[in-house]
């Protein structure tokens, strides 16, 4: 059995998992209008962490979360040679070192936390986080390590903001995943961590089971989702089959839901093909924005909090159905028993990934 | 079941070789750049090649040379049985710097450049060119790490993948450094081990 827990979150909504979850329950969003943040000083909605100095912000967030994670686990495992650290990020420390964006963080982690192994950086666009957690579970199953600390982090930079603006992919309002009036993404920044382990006793709070999933490429387009949802369909189908989990057993789906026209439509088609349209589903992007390489870890961490609190969180920004196949979007935050959760992600490069967590 | 490295390709700043034998060398008198020379040499017709960044061009070329030399047709594998396991040192730095110039110097952020500012795009291009729906992994590692490839590929090969196309592709000072290899359960080849992979890579 592979366990996942000790989830930690630093986001515009707060500096630990519990504070973040309280904000979600209270329907607070981390998105706000940032005057002059866009190209040519246009105003833009972003989910920015307050007072975060951009210099070395990537490295500082990761050091901070390593310290708070160590309070949630038996911290003697951090320097063990049976422990690996996996970082999930798209742009790393690009703000300070565009030539070699992960050099600084690796050096800081190895010297500051006396890691036995050089961290592995997984950089697969927006599926990085889900892929990183699956990799952690698979490496433990293969006997390569006993514990893997997975950290997802990306910060908002002009680079990424201008890039998404150049693609006309940014929403003029806070993003509205799955809504009929959605017009694009809202970018966000966050750092989130989980521990994946084969041992329950290293977690201070109860861990959950990680049922590792698979990834699949759309083989369709480098920056646009497949019209048929092929890769997402294949990834989820195989994840369910591999773990012998039936569609009816899934209590909740934490979808990718970026708020772009094509992504959300693609997800609805894949969910329809999978027979999952009746399962309660949301996107957390309305609270955190799209945090790119952090998203998969962040959203899995929130799912763990949802299970701890037996609470379904509504899909913020959604009012009117806006996909050709209707989905069961969660419109009200409420108590609900949650035993099995499916987490999915899709991204540039045609990647799709999924995983399951279980009580 | 034992897995073997059945084909491998190196591309440096002036030489391209397959299974250790030189295929092509840089023609310094040509007006075409090195990668365009290799594209012509490959005799492939794939107009998308011209819009790719260097990382994707190298990955596309190397995977093409491997395919063309493969003893059996790679198409005998199902469309999701070939996994891609790529890594490098500098992520998409070369394209990142170009995109940064587009907004800092040309004052017009280029969407065509921005879409290549992710290292995993090379795998997307290979997947599209071949209609491969399998697993993809891109890792950024301080140096070529044969252990990483062997460990992660074994996990995939013990699950659903029948073959792994692995690759270490870097661009340093606008020069390529690529080592791309195919791993599969075969009758012959070089046994897929850390030592063998390291020695075939030619990377210190």
TrEMBL record, chain A:
InterPro entries: Beta-ketoacyl_synthase (IPR000794), Ketoacyl_synth_C (IPR014031), Ketoacyl_synth_N (IPR014030), PKS_Beta-ketoAc_synthase_dom (IPR020841), Thiolase-like (IPR016039), Thiolase_acyl_enz_int_AS (IPR020615). GO terms for biological process: fatty acid biosynthetic process. Residues 1-359 form the Ketosynthase family 3 (KS3) domain. One of its GO terms (molecular function) is 3-oxoacyl-[acyl-carrier-protein] synthase activity. Keywords: Transferase. The keyword Transferase applies. It comes from the Bacteria. PANTHER family: BETA KETOACYL-ACYL CARRIER PROTEIN SYNTHASE, POLYKETIDE SYNTHASE-RELATED. Belongs to the thiolase-like superfamily. Beta-ketoacyl-ACP synthases family. This is Beta-ketoacyl synthase. It comes from Dyadobacter luteus.
Automatic annotation (TrEMBL), chain B:
It comes from Dyadobacter luteus. This is 3-oxoacyl-ACP synthase.
